[in-house]
């Protein structure tokens, strides 16, 4: 039942935001795993809009704040309590601030200064707030979303390394790439998702996700992945790997599974990279473990994109018409290969969602090639 509610919300979010399927999935996984998720990307890529839109669909107390270099602890954690000061106690009035929030969105999160950072880290790490500097208090925070246009000053291993490290899931978003999606974005209505999920429902789901089984096969797969990552020089902390399990369970839960399947490993491609230049290599490796058919589908898709780029770069004329004829053949061949992959995925009991998306994109691309370059419509 709740599974269906989540699936409906995910679908609605995907129709409000184009080419944002992975981030949307990440946000839902983070909410179920009670994690911290970072979304990086250039301004105007719908980072804030997606995070706030999801927050509005989830019940519970929502806290959001845009950090600047001079943000004060008051802004995030509340003003000092005068009453407490009278009794020589140093306490904050945390009502409606981060320590009492269920969902938090922190924009420009890497503008964080050290006065804020010291209190923020334990909040992210253990969901603990140190009230008067010594007494820890468990806080209700379910999911923390960090947004940024840029990497931390001084890089991911600089002063803000600890903050960077606390983000379990890290996503980078780019502007819309596909022409149709771009046109679609221009025509989007202002309709918001309808499905809502109460805090109580979320808590129930979190408990169910904790029960999702991690089989010996999955452990074996993770060990192989760990070995391969090391062999290629990617050193990932034991803590991060251990932490991955919760997110695998959350992902499996979203897929309606009672045990983690190798398809769920895709989520790790957003958990195991540290430096942006590692994203591509780690993604390829992780996807290879998750579902080799998806890797093949992505290669076919990349090939199709190259044809499209070639055509766009060629001026109108006989040469372009010849090129378009060839592209049309190649794109048709690509569609046949993807159709085969979908069959194979189904036969092997693997997810065919990504492959089907790739197929639809290539179909659209081919139609555009025929209409624009061959029929001159
Ligand atoms: N991929 C997308 N799908 C739908 N709308 C988008 C997309 N990218 C940008 N927009 C539009 O641009 C607006 C600005 O996005 P915003 O959340 O302010 O960006 P950011 O926080 O990344 O700077 C959004 O509210 C939305 O209307
Ligand atoms: Mg923004």
List keywords for this structure.
377 residues; alpha/beta; Rossmann fold; five-stranded parallel β-sheet; 7 strands; binds adenosine-5'-diphosphate; binds magnesium ion; P-loop_NTPase; RavA_ATPases
What would you say about this model in short?
GO terms for molecular function: hydrolase activity. Keywords: Hydrolase. With 377 residues, the protein is α/β, with parallel strands linked by helices.
Please give a structural write-up.
The chain is built from 15 helices and seven strands. The longest helix has 30 residues. The chain has 377 residues and is α/β, with parallel strands linked by helices. The protein has three domains: 185 residues, 3-Layer(aba) Sandwich (Rossmann fold); 79 residues, Helicase, Ruva Protein, domain 3 (Orthogonal Bundle), CATH 1.10.8; 83 residues, no CATH class. Helix 9 crosses helix 11, helix 13 runs parallel beside helix 15 and helix 14 runs antiparallel to helix 15. It has a five-stranded parallel sheet, covered by helices on one side. A two-stranded antiparallel sheet has the order 4-5. The model has no long low-confidence stretch (mean pLDDT 92). It is globular. The site of adenosine-5'-diphosphate (ADP) has 15 residues, from helix 3.
How are the SSEs placed, and which strands pair?
Elements: H1 2-16, H2 21-32, E1 36-41, H3 47-57, E2 62-66, H4 73-77, H5 82-86, E3 103-107, H6 114-126, E4 128-130, E5 136-138, E6 143-148, H7 161-166, E7 169-173, H8 179-186, H9 199-210, H10 216-231, H11 238-254, H12 279-290, H13 292-313, H14 318-347, H15 353-374
Helix pairs in contact: 1-2, 2-11, 9-11, 10-12, 12-13, 13-14, 13-15, 14-15
The structure holds adenosine-5'-diphosphate and magnesium ion.
């Amino acid at each position: 039942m709740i599974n269906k509610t989540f699936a409906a919300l995910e679908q609605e979010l995907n129709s409000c935001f184009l080419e944002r399927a992975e981030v949307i999935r990440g946000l839902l996984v983070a909410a179920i795993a009670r994690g911290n998720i970072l979304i990086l990307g250039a301004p105007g890529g719908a980072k804030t809009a997606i995070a706030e839109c999801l927050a509005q669909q989830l019940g519970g107390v929502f806290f959001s704040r845009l950090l600047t270099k001079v943000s004060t602890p008051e802004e995030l954690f509340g003003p000092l309590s005068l009453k407490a000061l009278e009794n020589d106690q140093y306490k904050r009035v945390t009502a409606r601030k981060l320590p009492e929030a269920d969902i938090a969105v922190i924009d420009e999160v890497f503008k964080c200064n050290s006065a804020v950072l010291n209190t923020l880290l334990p909040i992210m790490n253990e969901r603990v707030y140190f009230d008067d500097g010594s007494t820890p208090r468990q806080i209700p925070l379910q999911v923390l979303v960090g947004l940024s246009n840029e990497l931390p000053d001084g890089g991911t291993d600089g002063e803000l390394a600890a903050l960077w490290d606390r983000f379990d899931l890290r996503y980078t978003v780019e502007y819309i790439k596909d022409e149709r999606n771009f046109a679609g974005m221009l025509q989007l209505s202002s309709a918001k998702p309808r499905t809502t999920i109460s805090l109580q429902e979320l808590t129930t789901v979190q408990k169910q996700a904790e029960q999702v089984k991690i089989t010996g096969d999955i452990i074996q797969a993770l060990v192989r992945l760990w070995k391969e990552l090391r062999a290629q020089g990617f050193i990932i902390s034991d803590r991060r790997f251990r932490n991955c399990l919760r997110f695998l369970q959350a992902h499996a839960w979203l897929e309606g599974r009672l045990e983690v399947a190798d398809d769920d490993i895709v989520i790790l491609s957003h958990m195991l990279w540290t430096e942006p230049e590692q994203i591509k290599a780690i993604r390829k490796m992780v996807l290879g473990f998750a579902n080799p058919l998806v890797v093949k589908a992505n290669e076919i898709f990349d090939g199709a994109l190259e044809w499209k780029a070639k055509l766009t770069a060629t001026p109108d004329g006989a040469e372009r018409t010849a090129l378009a004829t060839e592209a049309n053949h190649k794109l048709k061949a690509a569609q046949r290969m993807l159709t085969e992959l979908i069959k194979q995925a189904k036969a092997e009991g693997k997810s065919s969602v990504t492959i089907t998306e790739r197929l639809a994109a290539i179909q659209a691309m081919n139609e555009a090639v025929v209409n624009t370059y061959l029929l001159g419509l």
